[in-house]
Amino acid sequence: MRSADLADWIRHAAELVTADAGRLSRLDADIGDGDHGHNLDRGFRAAVGALPGGDVPPGKVLIAAGRAIVSKTGGASGPLYGTALRRAGKALGDAGEVDAAALGAALRAALDGVRELGKAERGDKTMVDALGPAADAYDAALADGSDLAGCVRAAAEAAAKGAEETVPMQARKGRASYLGARSVGHLDPGAASTALILGALADVTGEG
Amino acid sequence: MVGIVIISHSRTLADGVAEVARAMGVGQAVVEPAGGDSEGGLGTSIDLAEAAVAAADGGDGVVLLADLGSSVLTARTLIEDAERDDLLLADAPLVEGAVAAASMAATGADLATVHAAAESAFEHRKTR
Inter-chain contact A78–B69, Cβ cutoff 8 Å? Predict the structure, then answer.
Protein backbone atom coordinates (compact mmCIF):
# COMPACT_ATOMS: atom_id res chain seq x y z
CA MET A 1 0.00 0.00 0.00
CA ARG A 2 1.09 3.51 -0.72
CA SER A 3 -0.11 6.94 0.44
CA ALA A 4 -2.81 7.11 -2.20
CA ASP A 5 -4.31 3.81 -1.00
CA LEU A 6 -4.56 5.06 2.59
CA ALA A 7 -6.06 8.33 1.38
CA ASP A 8 -8.59 6.24 -0.59
CA TRP A 9 -9.40 4.38 2.62
CA ILE A 10 -10.05 7.60 4.55
CA ARG A 11 -12.27 8.92 1.72
CA HIS A 12 -14.20 5.65 1.46
CA ALA A 13 -14.57 5.44 5.25
CA ALA A 14 -15.92 8.99 5.23
CA GLU A 15 -18.49 8.01 2.58
CA LEU A 16 -19.62 5.00 4.60
CA VAL A 17 -19.80 7.04 7.81
CA THR A 18 -21.87 9.70 6.07
CA ALA A 19 -24.22 7.04 4.69
CA ASP A 20 -24.50 5.34 8.10
CA ALA A 21 -24.49 8.43 10.35
CA GLY A 22 -28.20 8.13 11.09
CA ARG A 23 -27.94 4.48 12.11
CA LEU A 24 -24.87 5.10 14.30
CA SER A 25 -26.55 8.03 16.05
CA ARG A 26 -29.71 5.96 16.62
CA LEU A 27 -27.60 3.18 18.19
CA ASP A 28 -25.99 5.86 20.35
CA ALA A 29 -29.38 7.29 21.31
CA ASP A 30 -30.29 3.90 22.84
CA ILE A 31 -27.44 3.90 25.39
CA GLY A 32 -25.37 7.06 24.80
CA ASP A 33 -26.04 10.68 23.95
CA GLY A 34 -27.25 10.12 20.40
CA ASP A 35 -24.57 11.97 18.47
CA HIS A 36 -22.01 9.31 17.50
CA GLY A 37 -22.80 9.09 13.79
CA HIS A 38 -23.05 12.80 13.24
CA ASN A 39 -19.92 13.55 15.26
CA LEU A 40 -17.94 10.95 13.35
CA ASP A 41 -19.32 12.25 10.05
CA ARG A 42 -18.03 15.72 10.92
CA GLY A 43 -14.67 14.26 11.94
CA PHE A 44 -14.15 12.13 8.82
CA ARG A 45 -15.22 14.98 6.52
CA ALA A 46 -12.51 17.07 8.20
CA ALA A 47 -10.06 14.19 7.77
CA VAL A 48 -10.76 14.07 4.03
CA GLY A 49 -10.17 17.81 3.87
CA ALA A 50 -6.86 17.43 5.71
CA LEU A 51 -5.41 14.68 3.51
CA PRO A 52 -1.96 15.83 2.40
CA GLY A 53 -1.28 16.23 -1.28
CA GLY A 54 1.88 15.13 -3.03
CA ASP A 55 4.07 12.14 -2.37
CA VAL A 56 4.19 11.97 1.44
CA PRO A 57 4.89 8.76 3.39
CA PRO A 58 1.72 6.71 4.10
CA GLY A 59 2.17 7.25 7.84
CA LYS A 60 1.79 10.99 7.37
CA VAL A 61 -1.59 10.48 5.69
CA LEU A 62 -2.92 8.76 8.80
CA ILE A 63 -1.37 11.31 11.17
CA ALA A 64 -2.98 14.21 9.26
CA ALA A 65 -6.35 12.46 9.19
CA GLY A 66 -6.10 11.65 12.90
CA ARG A 67 -5.27 15.18 13.85
CA ALA A 68 -8.31 16.52 11.95
CA ILE A 69 -10.55 13.94 13.61
CA VAL A 70 -9.30 14.87 17.10
CA SER A 71 -9.89 18.53 16.35
CA LYS A 72 -13.28 18.46 14.63
CA THR A 73 -15.30 15.50 15.89
CA GLY A 74 -16.61 17.04 19.12
CA GLY A 75 -17.32 13.85 21.08
CA ALA A 76 -15.35 11.04 22.72
CA SER A 77 -14.94 9.37 19.33
CA GLY A 78 -12.70 12.28 18.25
CA PRO A 79 -9.80 11.65 20.63
CA LEU A 80 -10.29 7.87 20.31
CA TYR A 81 -10.32 7.55 16.51
CA GLY A 82 -7.82 10.38 16.20
CA THR A 83 -5.42 8.60 18.54
CA ALA A 84 -5.96 5.31 16.69
CA LEU A 85 -5.05 6.86 13.34
CA ARG A 86 -2.13 8.89 14.66
CA ARG A 87 -0.64 5.91 16.52
CA ALA A 88 -1.04 3.80 13.39
CA GLY A 89 0.61 6.55 11.35
CA LYS A 90 3.52 6.81 13.78
CA ALA A 91 3.97 3.03 13.66
CA LEU A 92 4.28 3.21 9.87
CA GLY A 93 7.09 5.74 10.26
CA ASP A 94 8.66 7.25 7.16
CA ALA A 95 8.49 4.11 5.00
CA GLY A 96 7.25 4.82 1.47
CA GLU A 97 5.35 1.58 1.16
CA VAL A 98 3.28 -0.42 3.66
CA ASP A 99 3.50 -4.23 3.57
CA ALA A 100 1.26 -6.69 5.37
CA ALA A 101 3.49 -6.90 8.47
CA ALA A 102 3.74 -3.12 8.79
CA LEU A 103 -0.03 -2.68 8.50
CA GLY A 104 -0.53 -5.32 11.20
CA ALA A 105 1.86 -3.49 13.51
CA ALA A 106 -0.01 -0.24 12.80
CA LEU A 107 -3.34 -1.87 13.64
CA ARG A 108 -1.88 -3.16 16.90
CA ALA A 109 -0.49 0.33 17.70
CA ALA A 110 -3.94 1.81 17.07
CA LEU A 111 -5.51 -0.70 19.47
CA ASP A 112 -2.89 0.02 22.14
CA GLY A 113 -3.46 3.78 21.77
CA VAL A 114 -7.21 3.45 22.17
CA ARG A 115 -6.86 1.17 25.21
CA GLU A 116 -4.40 3.54 26.84
CA LEU A 117 -6.49 6.65 26.24
CA GLY A 118 -9.90 5.22 27.08
CA LYS A 119 -8.69 2.77 29.78
CA ALA A 120 -11.08 0.24 28.27
CA GLU A 121 -10.54 -3.51 28.03
CA ARG A 122 -12.35 -6.17 26.08
CA GLY A 123 -15.81 -6.85 27.42
CA ASP A 124 -16.41 -3.22 28.45
CA LYS A 125 -18.77 -2.78 25.45
CA THR A 126 -16.63 -0.28 23.53
CA MET A 127 -14.78 -0.02 20.22
CA VAL A 128 -12.04 -2.15 21.81
CA ASP A 129 -14.42 -5.10 21.42
CA ALA A 130 -14.19 -4.66 17.64
CA LEU A 131 -10.62 -3.39 17.30
CA GLY A 132 -9.09 -6.04 19.58
CA PRO A 133 -10.47 -9.07 17.70
CA ALA A 134 -9.55 -7.31 14.43
CA ALA A 135 -5.89 -6.99 15.45
CA ASP A 136 -5.81 -10.63 16.59
CA ALA A 137 -7.45 -11.89 13.38
CA TYR A 138 -5.05 -9.82 11.29
CA ASP A 139 -2.03 -11.31 13.06
CA ALA A 140 -3.43 -14.83 12.76
CA ALA A 141 -4.04 -14.39 9.02
CA LEU A 142 -0.53 -12.99 8.60
CA ALA A 143 0.94 -15.97 10.43
CA ASP A 144 -1.03 -18.27 8.10
CA GLY A 145 0.63 -16.62 5.11
CA SER A 146 -2.23 -14.42 3.91
CA ASP A 147 -1.42 -11.39 1.79
CA LEU A 148 -2.29 -7.87 2.92
CA ALA A 149 -5.79 -7.92 1.43
CA GLY A 150 -6.50 -11.29 3.07
CA CYS A 151 -5.27 -10.06 6.46
CA VAL A 152 -7.43 -6.93 6.22
CA ARG A 153 -10.45 -9.00 5.19
CA ALA A 154 -9.96 -11.24 8.24
CA ALA A 155 -9.60 -8.17 10.48
CA ALA A 156 -12.76 -6.55 9.09
CA GLU A 157 -14.76 -9.76 9.55
CA ALA A 158 -13.51 -10.12 13.14
CA ALA A 159 -14.42 -6.48 13.85
CA ALA A 160 -17.96 -7.02 12.57
CA LYS A 161 -18.32 -10.18 14.67
CA GLY A 162 -16.79 -8.44 17.70
CA ALA A 163 -19.24 -5.56 17.34
CA GLU A 164 -22.21 -7.97 17.29
CA GLU A 165 -20.85 -9.58 20.44
CA THR A 166 -21.21 -6.29 22.33
CA VAL A 167 -25.02 -6.71 22.27
CA PRO A 168 -25.28 -8.88 25.43
CA MET A 169 -22.53 -6.99 27.24
CA GLN A 170 -23.09 -4.56 30.10
CA ALA A 171 -21.28 -1.28 29.46
CA ARG A 172 -18.43 -0.35 31.76
CA LYS A 173 -17.26 2.84 30.01
CA GLY A 174 -18.91 6.06 28.87
CA ARG A 175 -22.45 7.27 29.36
CA ALA A 176 -23.84 3.78 28.75
CA SER A 177 -22.10 2.58 31.93
CA TYR A 178 -24.44 4.77 34.01
CA LEU A 179 -27.32 2.59 32.79
CA GLY A 180 -25.96 -0.57 34.42
CA ALA A 181 -27.91 -3.65 33.35
CA ARG A 182 -30.13 -1.51 31.09
CA SER A 183 -27.20 -1.18 28.67
CA VAL A 184 -27.53 -4.93 27.90
CA GLY A 185 -29.24 -5.81 24.62
CA HIS A 186 -27.89 -2.92 22.56
CA LEU A 187 -25.14 -2.86 19.95
CA ASP A 188 -22.30 -0.55 21.01
CA PRO A 189 -22.13 2.33 18.51
CA GLY A 190 -18.34 2.69 18.79
CA ALA A 191 -17.81 -0.99 18.04
CA ALA A 192 -20.27 -0.64 15.13
CA SER A 193 -18.38 2.31 13.63
CA THR A 194 -15.05 0.51 14.07
CA ALA A 195 -16.42 -2.43 12.07
CA LEU A 196 -17.66 0.00 9.41
CA ILE A 197 -14.29 1.76 9.10
CA LEU A 198 -12.29 -1.49 8.94
CA GLY A 199 -14.81 -2.72 6.37
CA ALA A 200 -13.93 0.34 4.32
CA LEU A 201 -10.26 -0.67 4.48
CA ALA A 202 -11.16 -4.17 3.29
CA ASP A 203 -13.12 -2.68 0.38
CA VAL A 204 -10.15 -0.57 -0.66
CA THR A 205 -7.47 -3.29 -0.32
CA GLY A 206 -9.75 -5.90 -1.91
CA GLU A 207 -9.95 -3.92 -5.13
CA GLY A 208 -6.23 -4.29 -5.84
CA MET B 1 1.54 31.03 39.36
CA VAL B 2 0.13 27.65 38.35
CA GLY B 3 -2.73 28.05 35.88
CA ILE B 4 -6.00 26.13 35.85
CA VAL B 5 -8.08 25.05 32.86
CA ILE B 6 -11.69 23.89 33.06
CA ILE B 7 -12.79 21.60 30.21
CA SER B 8 -16.52 20.95 30.02
CA HIS B 9 -19.10 19.88 27.44
CA SER B 10 -20.94 23.13 28.10
CA ARG B 11 -19.61 26.65 27.63
CA THR B 12 -21.97 27.85 30.36
CA LEU B 13 -20.80 25.17 32.78
CA ALA B 14 -17.09 25.83 32.13
CA ASP B 15 -17.60 29.58 32.49
CA GLY B 16 -19.56 29.08 35.73
CA VAL B 17 -17.00 26.75 37.27
CA ALA B 18 -14.25 29.21 36.33
CA GLU B 19 -16.25 32.04 37.92
CA VAL B 20 -16.64 30.16 41.20
CA ALA B 21 -13.01 29.00 41.21
CA ARG B 22 -11.68 32.51 40.53
CA ALA B 23 -13.74 33.85 43.42
CA MET B 24 -12.35 31.15 45.72
CA GLY B 25 -8.88 31.93 44.42
CA VAL B 26 -9.32 35.42 45.90
CA GLY B 27 -9.14 37.03 42.49
CA GLN B 28 -5.55 35.92 41.98
CA ALA B 29 -5.84 32.41 40.55
CA VAL B 30 -5.71 32.17 36.76
CA VAL B 31 -8.65 29.99 35.69
CA GLU B 32 -9.45 29.61 31.99
CA PRO B 33 -12.62 27.89 30.76
CA ALA B 34 -12.81 25.71 27.63
CA GLY B 35 -16.47 24.79 27.31
CA GLY B 36 -18.50 23.40 24.45
CA ASP B 37 -17.58 22.65 20.88
CA SER B 38 -16.04 25.13 18.47
CA GLU B 39 -19.50 26.44 17.49
CA GLY B 40 -20.61 27.00 21.07
CA GLY B 41 -22.83 23.91 21.20
CA LEU B 42 -22.49 21.01 23.63
CA GLY B 43 -19.32 19.03 23.03
CA THR B 44 -15.59 19.36 23.43
CA SER B 45 -12.96 21.08 21.35
CA ILE B 46 -9.27 20.36 21.68
CA ASP B 47 -8.57 23.66 19.92
CA LEU B 48 -10.47 25.60 22.59
CA ALA B 49 -8.73 23.57 25.31
CA GLU B 50 -5.29 24.29 23.83
CA ALA B 51 -6.10 28.00 23.65
CA ALA B 52 -7.20 27.93 27.29
CA VAL B 53 -3.96 26.19 28.31
CA ALA B 54 -1.95 28.84 26.46
CA ALA B 55 -3.93 31.58 28.22
CA ALA B 56 -3.51 29.99 31.66
CA ASP B 57 0.17 29.17 31.23
CA GLY B 58 2.30 31.60 33.20
CA GLY B 59 5.37 29.37 33.09
CA ASP B 60 4.73 27.43 36.31
CA GLY B 61 2.56 24.70 34.79
CA VAL B 62 -1.15 24.14 34.30
CA VAL B 63 -3.63 21.85 36.06
CA LEU B 64 -6.52 20.66 33.89
CA LEU B 65 -9.93 19.68 35.21
CA ALA B 66 -12.46 17.93 32.98
CA ASP B 67 -16.13 17.12 33.49
CA LEU B 68 -16.60 13.68 31.88
CA GLY B 69 -16.30 11.47 28.82
CA SER B 70 -14.89 13.29 25.84
CA SER B 71 -13.64 16.16 28.02
CA VAL B 72 -11.40 13.72 29.86
CA LEU B 73 -10.22 12.08 26.63
CA THR B 74 -9.57 15.51 25.11
CA ALA B 75 -7.50 16.55 28.14
CA ARG B 76 -5.46 13.33 27.99
CA THR B 77 -4.90 13.75 24.25
CA LEU B 78 -3.88 17.38 24.65
CA ILE B 79 -1.32 16.46 27.32
CA GLU B 80 0.10 13.63 25.20
CA ASP B 81 0.39 15.91 22.16
CA ALA B 82 2.01 18.73 24.10
CA GLU B 83 4.88 16.45 25.18
CA ARG B 84 5.31 18.60 28.30
CA ASP B 85 5.63 17.42 31.88
CA ASP B 86 4.09 20.59 33.35
CA LEU B 87 0.51 19.91 32.21
CA LEU B 88 -1.38 17.66 34.62
CA LEU B 89 -4.95 16.35 34.50
CA ALA B 90 -6.50 16.21 37.97
CA ASP B 91 -8.52 13.11 38.85
CA ALA B 92 -11.11 15.17 40.67
CA PRO B 93 -14.78 16.25 40.68
CA LEU B 94 -15.03 19.35 38.49
CA VAL B 95 -16.34 22.09 40.79
CA GLU B 96 -14.70 20.93 44.00
CA GLY B 97 -11.42 20.22 42.23
CA ALA B 98 -11.40 23.61 40.53
CA VAL B 99 -12.09 25.42 43.79
CA ALA B 100 -9.39 23.45 45.63
CA ALA B 101 -6.86 24.03 42.83
CA ALA B 102 -7.64 27.76 42.60
CA SER B 103 -7.41 28.18 46.35
CA MET B 104 -4.01 26.50 46.44
CA ALA B 105 -2.71 28.19 43.28
CA ALA B 106 -3.51 31.60 44.75
CA THR B 107 -1.02 30.89 47.56
CA GLY B 108 1.77 30.59 44.98
CA ALA B 109 2.15 26.85 45.52
CA ASP B 110 3.94 24.75 42.89
CA LEU B 111 2.36 22.51 40.25
CA ALA B 112 2.51 19.25 42.25
CA THR B 113 0.92 20.94 45.27
CA VAL B 114 -1.90 22.52 43.25
CA HIS B 115 -2.53 19.19 41.48
CA ALA B 116 -2.63 17.36 44.82
CA ALA B 117 -5.05 19.97 46.21
CA ALA B 118 -7.38 19.39 43.25
CA GLU B 119 -7.30 15.62 43.76
CA SER B 120 -7.89 16.01 47.51
CA ALA B 121 -11.34 17.38 46.65
CA PHE B 122 -12.60 13.78 46.51
CA GLU B 123 -12.18 13.61 50.28
CA HIS B 124 -14.73 16.35 50.97
CA ARG B 125 -17.85 14.22 51.33
CA LYS B 126 -21.38 15.64 51.40
CA THR B 127 -23.39 13.30 53.58
CA ARG B 128 -20.82 12.36 56.17
Answer: no
